[in-house]
Design brief:
mainly alpha; single chain; elongated; 3 helices
């Protein structure tokens, strides 16, 4: 039996949880700030200005906020589990990276 090619587009009625979206809005820029500060530190061979510390502090606040909203998103009945898990994973990676930078 040959596979039939479906005609038309299939749109999903599934919406994302609002808390997961907020968590992603805070988590992704936090991750970008962390990566930027690491790359900048490597480029200038450790001679970073104090402003990078402020950027990492803001990234920590955004990561903790993202984690809290990711936990709240699990209580929401709307949305798929992928967005909820993705927002939680991003926020945990952010916090773990910041803890690793602090320890090292």
């Amino acid at each position: 039996m040959a596979l039939r090619k479906k005609k038309g587009y299939k749109f999903s009625d599934e919406v994302m949880a609002k808390d997961a979206v907020i968590s992603l809005i805070f988590g992704v820029p936090s991750f970008v700030c962390i990566v930027f500060s690491i790359v900048y530190s490597i480029v200038v061979k450790g001679n970073v200005p104090d402003a990078i510390g402020a950027v990492l502090l803001v990234a920590l606040i955004m990561a903790v906020t993202a984690f809290i909203f990711a936990l709240f998103s699990y209580r929401d009945t709307d949305g798929g589990i992928i967005s909820k898990r993705g927002s939680l994973i991003i926020s945990i990676i952010d916090i773990a990276a910041l803890v690793a930078l602090y320890v090292l």
